[in-house]
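Input record, target 12 of the design panel.
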């Protein structure tokens, strides 16, 4: 084959982002895909000589033009490198169904770390061109080494990927953990965690769970960032609780109170309490740390004690407040309406917390 002979073109795809994917696929390809089109590795290597029309950007992955790769080309090159498996060569188009366009197949590989956070839209994540390497998440059994701009991250349990700009990306909590594992900049760690929660990308508990599983909670700068994250997450959840009560027409409770028996022991703090109905709401903002079981036992003991006194306790998670506020308001309304059918609650002293 003449080194200057162009490769056969992939059939054009439908308009929009998928067509954009197909254009990238024409520029980034693998040795396996080239073989399908009749180009041997030796011929590809010849085209990658200095001054040639191609370049080998990663082992077995080729960029079909000279000059620096774009950020999008780097993403697809990393996925093509990491996504190879024995059954389906990475970068080879999947067989489309009726009317569906060709799409690259990347196996179980997905972008993670700072690159994924950038693709998820976190403004404090560094821009893609500034990243020396791109983290890519693969199953732990894969025998694959980091190479060039591809930094391989292994996991025993792959999360379900999302999609951003046409590439598979790890969920925000997992991407945060993979990014934080490599960061020593305490300020950046704190900003990333804060924006992820403040921007509604995920809940604090999900972030802490991933950090805990990655064994990162023994690093002082990570612990400090998590403490700030949990405080901010609670403030956001409290604001959502205020909004739920007012938007769904619930009667006004007393907010942030402590309950005590007259002359007796402290019964615990509550986020909202309706004294005339003996109904309480407590935000379940537990984070999965080493003492989770002990903390849950404390929650359970408090709830059992209050319910023995005739006080109904409704626990609401921040995620349910965010995603199902109307449903949670209905649960509280039902508890308030049912209060008239219960025996009167014990008298308790209500104090500001």
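The sequence produced for target 12 reads:
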């Amino acid at each position: 084959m003449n080194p200057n002979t162009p490769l056969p073109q992939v059939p054009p795809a439908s308009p929009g982002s998928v067509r954009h994917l197909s254009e990238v696929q024409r520029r980034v390809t693998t040795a396996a895909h080239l073989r399908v089109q009749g180009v041997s590795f030796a011929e590809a290597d010849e085209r990658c000589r200095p001054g040639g029309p191609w370049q080998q950007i990663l082992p077995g992955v080729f960029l079909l033009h000279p000059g620096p790769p774009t950020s999008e080309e780097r993403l697809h090159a990393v996925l093509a490198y990491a996504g190879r498996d024995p059954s389906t060569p990475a970068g080879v188009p999947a067989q489309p169904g009726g009317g569906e366009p060709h799409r690259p197949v990347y196996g179980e590989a997905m972008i993670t770390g700072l690159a994924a956070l950038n693709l998820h839209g976190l403004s404090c994540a560094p821009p893609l061109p500034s990243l020396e390497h791109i983290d890519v998440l693969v199953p732990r059994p894969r025998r694959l080494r980091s190479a060039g701009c591809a930094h391989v991250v292994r996991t025993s349990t792959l999360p379900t990927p999302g999609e951003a700009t046409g590439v598979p990306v790890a969920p925000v909590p997992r991407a945060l953990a993979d990014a934080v594992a490599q960061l020593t900049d305490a300020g950046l760690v704190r900003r990333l965690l804060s924006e992820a929660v403040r921007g509604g990308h995920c809940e604090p508990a999900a972030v802490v769970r991933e950090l805990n599983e990655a064994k990162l909670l023994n690093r002082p700068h990570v612990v400090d960032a998590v403490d700030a994250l949990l405080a901010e997450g609670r403030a956001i959840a409290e604001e959502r609780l205020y909004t739920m009560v007012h938007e769904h027409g619930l009667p006004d409770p007393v907010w942030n109170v402590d309950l005590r028996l007259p002359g007796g022991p402290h019964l615990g703090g509550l986020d909202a309490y309706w004294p005339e109905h003996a109904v309480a709401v407590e935000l379940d903002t537990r984070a999965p740390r080493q003492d989770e079981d002990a903390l849950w036992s404390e929650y359970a003991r408090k709830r059992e004690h209050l319910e023995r006194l005739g006080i109904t306790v409704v626990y609401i998670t921040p995620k349910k407040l965010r995603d199902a506020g109307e449903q949670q308001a209905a649960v509280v309304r039902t508890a308030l309406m049912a209060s008239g059918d219960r025996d009167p609650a014990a008298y308790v002293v209500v104090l500001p917390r």
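The radius of gyration is 27 Å.
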